[in-house]
Amino acid sequence: MRLLPAVFCMLLLPPLTACSGLPGSAPDGPAPLFRTHINEEGSKRFTFEAAPLDVLPSRLQGDDDSRLSRNNRSLLERREALQDEQLTQTLAEQKYCRSGYIVLSQTSWKIRGECNETATQADRSAFPNRASWQD
pTM of the prediction? Predict the structure, then answer.
């Protein structure tokens, strides 16, 4: 009788772990970090740091003809596409850049940008400046 709970758990474990990677499930790792700053003139800036869903290799450089280099480049391109998708989703959810934005700087993990529109009083209320902002 003591083995019954253990056997039951062993039978349930594979289906439960298989479902953990389905769409709609929470991603592994931290959520993306989104910071905003509105200056006195009304420029709306932001930084977005995407959650690391793919671990990038420590060496992304190599011989252009090598298979490893092509794989690294492909991983970096996929990472940047995922980052852009996450940023677009975050901006839509937060309703921050309603008229689009320009990229001021971008790496494989961080985007600094500025909204095309000037901040309204409602924007200033919804997105107060934080001391943690770094320009």
Answer: 0.64
